[in-house]
Specification:
single chain, about 300 residues, alpha+beta, four-stranded antiparallel β-sheet, two-stranded parallel ribbon
Length: about 300
């Protein structure tokens, strides 16, 4: 099993994953908090987060064969001019939709493992979908710790990562958990324009990312002025931008993460003139396609108001 561990980590790095670690299944240490967070409605309209909650908190309920979880991360950081006053798009959405690229690499890892290990075994792949609580698993696998902004933070490379998992029926030993290094820093809490963050907790319904990508209805008047000051049309990077652990980010090497139009920022007047065909052309194959045309127009209208 130790040789298998080393093979998995070596193969993952050869495939382009920047971080790889292994954890074992079991009840999530944040289970009580997650239950109370859902009960308080802080997940808003993201009802999928409450679906099969107990199975999400302990994956063995859904996968009785599960013995270990390989967690991987890839940097999506691309340097660009600093954010402007209006029309910014969050960095993770500057390039192609990351789901397909990471899934393809995890499938290659899965295939390599089956070629190397002759015995049959069960496995599943996930990238920001399905039951896994990705950040919690990645922290348990030693890829970093969950910071005060609720992001996974690596001590040298920061938090500009997308995550994926390979669930296995093979009994692999877990990696060492990293210690929380946020200390007394509160930069992310102070910088959040909508006061969505308290230490290690987020009210998603106040988060700009939620409002611009998940909220299908009107944006409350209370949040519109801070959103205008933040200037984000799609998503938000503020709590990561101010984090001191992101001062020397690991640059993305995957071509899919390269910045392409309409990122990194969009002319708000153009968005207001988009037709359904324009929206389809601009968002095809992109992570921000989650926001429908009416949501793009709504977001632009909020930012355009004086």
């Amino acid at each position: 099993m130790e040789a298998l561990r080393e093979f998995i980590k070596r193969a993952a790095r050869e495939l382009g994953f920047d971080l790889v670690g292994i954890t074992t299944p079991g009840p999530d240490s944040h289970a009580d908090y997650v239950r109370s967070w859902i009960a308080a409605g802080r997940h808003g309209d993201m009802h999928y987060l409450a679906r099969d909650l107990e199975a999400r908190l302990d994956l063995r309920r859904r996968f009785p064969w599960l013995r270990s979880i390989v967690c991987v991360a890839m940097s999506y950081y691309q340097a660009a001019p600093s954010a402007t006053r209006r029309g910014n798009i969050a960095r993770y959405a500057w390039g192609r939709d990351y789901h397909r690229g990471l899934q393809a690499k995890l499938k290659k890892l899965q295939h390599a493992l089956r070629q190397w290990y002759a015995q049959p075994f069960e496995s599943r792949i996930y990238v920001d979908t399905g039951p896994p609580l990705e950040r919690e698993l990645a922290a348990r696998a030693g890829l970093g710790w969950l910071g005060k902004n609720t992001m996974l933070i690596h001590p040298r490379h920061g938090s500009w990562f997308v995550l994926g998992e390979l669930l296995l029926s093979l009994p692999l030993a877990a990696d060492t958990v990293q210690l929380d290094q946020c200390g007394t820093c509160t930069r992310c809490l102070q910088a959040c324009p909508t006061a969505a963050l308290t230490a290690y907790q987020m009210d998603a319904t106040r988060c700009i990312s939620y409002q611009t990508l998940e909220n299908r209805g009107d944006i409350s008047a209370e949040l519109q002025e801070p959103m205008r000051k933040a200037g984000y049309l799609i998503g938000c990077d503020i709590c990561q931008t101010v984090c001191p652990f992101n001062s020397q980010p690991l640059a993305a090497h995957e071509p899919d993460f390269a910045c392409t139009a309409p990122a990194p920022r969009v002319d708000l007047d153009q968005v207001q003139r988009w037709t359904q065909e324009d929206w389809d052309r601009q968002t095809r194959g992109r992570a921000f396609r989650r926001a429908q045309l009416l949501m793009w127009r709504r977001n632009a209208q909020v930012l355009r108001r004086p």
